[in-house]
Specification:
The protein has 15 helices and 16 strands. The chain has 390 residues and is an alpha/beta fold. Strand 2 and strand 3 form a beta hairpin. Helix 6 packs parallel to helix 8. Bound molecules: zinc ion.
Length: 390
């Protein structure tokens, strides 16, 4: 259909200051006009009466919000780690090493198995309102398995991240430097054609600052853009490295010093929170208030992966951020939409104003507030998503 007018919207979240106060730019009694999968107009339902469209939908006072932008997910894998979750919930601690069991399952899976698991997760995410989702490699950890993970991911999304530096695979035990050489050499060569981003898990049990810098440098030299897993498990140099490399995003940000907070606030690096990971590992939540009050741009993402955060559900992450991270409901929604877009350095998504992609959600609720106010309830009435990969 060429054009679509959605009208009688009780509350339209535009995320654009042109239409209302920060952070959400809300228009009440609103309408939105879509032309060829692009937003062409937003305004009041009254003014919309004069607009022509091929199709009109009256939503009877319901809320409309931008589609969620999930800027951090690990979706190419095989296997199940519910047993590890059970053990953790019975008192064991989370460490980065559990990734290795998914590596073994992923290596022995066929392309079709990986593709159909990815497709199922993508559909699951879309049905809960996610319209753009970033997807990392990191469970292959051989030249061939990393390249095929990214090749398969790139069939579904433009936001692909090469994460060969996820964990050192067991065959490189005691030869960590050799593995870093592989990640920055032949593996990078094979993966770069399918990747937009270079990512490193810089943390305890994963990669140290020196190796992290090497991997980011090599990726950037190949034309990839940097982003980083930083300070999930302990304080360290991760945040400083992210800022030093002008990474689009530093993800997790759970254990920060005051100088980390200051560095993020005075940089273009988005601080991305992954509260479902803290939930699923029963860990301390990051201090969102500190970063927001310091002036940092923040995002919320799922970190969907089979070990430490097996959810694709952004409304769940919003509810957690509000309840556990002292974010206001408006801040959390902005972080899950416009914040995610910033974390991917995209200006065509995460907001609803002319020229944006027509990615939006009709809620079964009169207000976005219900996303946190009614946790665990499916409030997604319909997801509108522009054609083509995002
Ligand atoms: Zn992650």
């Amino acid at each position: 259909m060429a054009s679509l007018l959605v009208t009688n919207i009780g509350e339209l979240v535009t995320n654009s200051l042109a239409y209302g106060p920060t952070p959400l730019g809300i228009i009440r009694d609103a309408a939105i006009l879509i032309d060829n999968d692009v937003v062409s107009w937003v305004g009041s339902a009254f003014d919309a009466q004069r607009l022509a469209a091929d199709e009109k939908i009256d939503v009877d006072g319901a809320a409309v919000i931008p589609g969620f932008v999930d800027s951090h997910a690990h979706l190419v894998f095989a296997g199940d780690r519910s047993g590890e979750f059970e053990a953790r919930m019975s008192g064991n601690n989370y460490s980065a090493g559990g990734i290795r069991s998914t590596v073994a399952a992923t290596r022995s899976a066929s392309d079709d198995e990986l593709r159909s698991n990815l497709q199922r997760l993508m559909e699951e995410a879309n049905s809960s309102g996610t319209t753009t989702i970033e997807c990392k490699s990191g469970y292959g950890l051989t030249v061939e398995d990393e390249a095929r993970s990214l090749r398969i991911a790139s069939e579904f999304t433009t936001e692909t991240s090469y994460l060969g530096a996820h964990v050192v695979p067991s065959e490189f035990d005691d030869r960590k430097d050799d593995y870093v050489s592989l990640v920055t050499g032949a593996m990078l060569d094979a993966c770069a054609p399918y990747s937009r981003w270079i990512d490193v898990f810089c943390d305890r049990g994963a990669f140290d600052p020196n190796s992290t810098r090497k991997v980011l440098k090599a990726g950037i030299a190949k034309g990839l853009l940097p982003r980083l897993h930083a300070n999930q498990l302990k304080q360290g140099e991760g945040i400083q490295i992210a800022v030093e490399f002008d990474a689009a995003s530093a993800d997790h940000c759970t254990h920060l010093t005051q100088s980390d907070v200051d560095a993020l606030a005075s940089s273009d690096t988005v601080a991305t929170f992954l509260p479902a990971a803290e939930f699923s590992t029963r860990s301390q939540y990051p201090n969102a208030r500190k970063l927001i009050d310091a002036g940092s741009t923040v995002a919320i993402a799922t970190d969907c992966n089979p070990g430490s955060s097996y959810t694709t559900n952004m409304p769940f992450c919003i509810a957690l951020a509000v309840r556990e991270m002292q974010m206001s409901p408006a801040e959390a929604l902005a972080a899950a939409t416009l914040g995610g877009a910033s974390a991917l350095r995209r200006n065509d998504i995460g907001h609803l104003a002319p020229n944006a992609r027509a990615d939006f959600i009709l809620l079964n609720a009169p207000s976005y507030l219900h996303l946190a106010y009614r946790p665990g309830v499916n409030l997604i009435n319909r997801v509108f998503r522009a054609k083509g990969k995002s």
